[in-house]
Each structure stands twice: as structure tokens, then as C-alpha cells.
Amino acid sequence: MLDNMIFKQLMKHSFTIPVEVTYPNGKTEKYGNGAPQVKIKVNEKIPVKDLLRNASITLGEAYMDKKIEVSGSLQVLINSAYESANSFLNNNKFKRFLPKQSHTEESSKNDVQSHYDLGNDFYKLWLDKTMTYSCAYFEKPDDTLEKAQMNKVHHILKKLDPKPGSSLLDIGCGWGTLMLTAAKEYNMNVVGITLSEEQYNAVKQRIKDEGLEGQAEVLLEDYRELDHLPFDYITSVGMFEHVGEENLGEYFNTISRYLKSNGVALIHGITRQQGGAYNGWINKYIFPGGYVPGLNENLTHIIESGMQVADIEMLRRHYQRTLEMWIDNFHKVLPEVRKMHDERFIRMWDLYLQACAASFESGNIDVIQYLISKGPSARTLPMTRDYMYKD
């Protein structure tokens, strides 16, 4: 009885939109004014002690197991919860983070492979042809996802102001689109590193197919163990979210070590302007070991590593739009996904994608590009930002 009362109070104050909730006893309550935008059906009692222990894990698992069903947009519902000052997502009584994560080289390898080695065929179903699994960059309202992903690649490379024949290291190279574009269109000598065997095999094959042997190389290796000469430029997209809070300093020190004097790096990753945080459910089911650092945290590590900031750009709205396109693609290919995975996996990924879109929409998280240099800021770069936008 007490659990039911507390859970009802939790629902009552958790949303900024009108919501209808049907409880396990069949009774329905409406919260907020106007017609419900989202309907929630609670099929089984959710113990409050589990919510207090970790609300994100408890509610995420309840949705995966159909203990909770939602009619309407998950993104709209979760965004509303983020916007409500009294929701379980913002109330300190309900915020619980996982214990400190392990990020040894072995655990990092296992964490990355658990996510990225789901299989290239799975990601091919709902990513675009570039196989780019990070925030796109929408220069025009009608840009397709593929066009926006290539916009992002060129936006990153243009910020470096790279010289033909120069060397580039791409830390966490994914399926290779950025590094191979740098080789083909900017005439750079490139090295990409990844811990994903699926990605490594795919990039290695692309290098062979596109005749880039001798100009491009991919390594299946931990970023901390690279044995190469310093590079003129470094890129790293969607990488520092995986290294762990305790290893952020080492990550930026490693970038500094691999950069030549006056070298330039573009680091692109999910950042919280409000400070770093873990998410229990995402850590358990999607990104083991994941940690989203705070803006001040990253800036401190950059400076302490002997580098300086040349430019910062926030791309939060671009990632929201990217995710909304992925969600649409994912829903369109559900028949194919069902041939690979069960319904629990599908509900898990649908929740993950929509929750991330809501988190960017609400400003709970951001994605930021840090243009940094080893030595005085932007010593080798043009004086204004105009060069970033020229063809």
C-alpha cells in the first residue's frame, strides 16, 4: 500500500505534460491539464526501494520487461521528465549513480566490444551509408542524414586547417569514414585505432578496396599503447565518453603526447554543461563503463595536459536531430531487427535512442567540439573562423 502511494506521488510530480497512468489495480489517474499526450500502463508494482536504489535501472528494466508500457512518444515523455524540477530525474532523493567504473585496458576492450561488436549488419540497418555512429552536422534544413554526416566529417577536418602530406591520428576511428576522407580528399597520411574487431575488419577492407595502402592504416589497439611518431593532427569523435572519469586526465595527456609541437586536435564528444554524470541503466545495458564528463572537467584536463583551447562549438540540437533520424530508421527496419534480436533487446534499443534524444532536447547533455593545440592557442591557425566554412 505504501509503495503504491509513493509511486503515485512520484508520477504526479514527474512530468510537465498531461499524462495518463493506469496502475496494476486497473485504476487510471490523469496528471496535468488537458488531453493526455502520453499514456503509461503499469502492469506490475514497482518497488519504491528499487527506485530509490537506482531509478534509471529500475524503470529501464521495467520498460524492457513490459512491466511498464507507453502509448505515445518515449522521447516526449522523457524530455518532459527532464524538464520537471520535481521529477525522479532531477530530485536528489532519486538520483543514484553506479559505483566507480573499471577502465583497465582489458575492461575497456570488453566494454567497447560489448557495444560495437553487436555486428556490422545490425548497425547497417539504421545508420546511413557512411556508417557514422555519432552526431551529424546539419548545414541546411533539408540535409539527409548521409549528407549531414559527411558535413560533420568535413567540418572537423576543415577546423584543423590540414596541410597536404601531413599526418593524422584518429582515436576511436569507428568504421573509418573520417580517416579515409582525410586520406582521399585532404591528401593526409592517416592512422586510425579502435578496440572493436568488427570495425577494425571493416576499415581494413575499405583501405584495401579503395587503394589506400601506404596512406592509411588501421590498428586494433588501445589508445594508450600506440607506438608511433607524433602526429601533426589528431581527431577523436565520441571517444572520451568511454574512457571513464578516472582516466580523462590520461586521455588528454595521451593526445598531448601524440601531438607534435604546435599540432592541432579536434575532440568531439558528449559533455554535460552541468557537470559529469553516470547513468545506471545505460552503463548496465548499452555502454558499460560509460561516463559523460562535465565541460569544466574537460577544460581542466586540456589545460593540465599542456594544451590550449582554440575554439569550442556546441552541437546539442544537431545530435537531437541525428537521434530522431536514427529512431525513425530503427522503427522502419524492425522486421529485420527481429530476425537478429528478441523483443527485449528491441525495447532496450528503442528506449536508449529515444531517451538520448530527450536528454539532448532538454539540455541534460550536450555534444561539444573542442579545437585544441599543443602550445599557444591556434598559433598555426588562421586568425578568424572564416576558414572553417570555405569550400
Tell me what the structure shows.
There is one protein chain. The protein is α/β, with parallel strands linked by helices. The chain has helices at 2-12, 48-53, 55-64, 74-83, 105-116, 120-126, 145-160, 177-186, 197-209, 248-258, 280-285, 295-304, 316-332, 334-337, 343-362, and strands at residues 19-22, 28-31, 38-42, 68-71, 167-171, 189-194, 216-220, 231-237, 259-271, 307-314, 366-374. The strands form 2 sheets. A 7-stranded mixed sheet has the order 7-6-5-8-9-11-10, with helices on both faces. It has a 4-stranded mixed sheet with strand order 2-1-3-4. α4 packs across α15. InterPro entries: CFA/CMAS (IPR050723), CMAS (IPR003333), DUF7884 (IPR057206), SAM-dependent_MTases_sf (IPR029063).
Q: What best-fitting shape do the alpha-carbon axes yield?
A: elongated
Major sheet strand order: 7-6-5-8-9-11-10
Sequence of secondary-structure elements: HEEEHHEHHHHEHEHEEHEHHEHHHE
Number of continuous helical runs: 15
Average pLDDT, rounded to a whole number, is: 90
Unreliable stretches: 93-117
- How many strands appear in the DSSP assignment? 11
Q: Cα-atom Rg, whole angstroms?
A: 22 Å
The percent range for helix content is 40-55%
Q: Oligomeric form of this entry?
A: single chain
Structural class computed from helices and strand pairing:
alpha/beta
GO molecular function, one term: methyltransferase activity
Family: Belongs to the CFA/CMAS family.
Organism: Ligilactobacillus salivarius
Protein name: Cyclopropane-fatty-acyl-phospholipid synthase
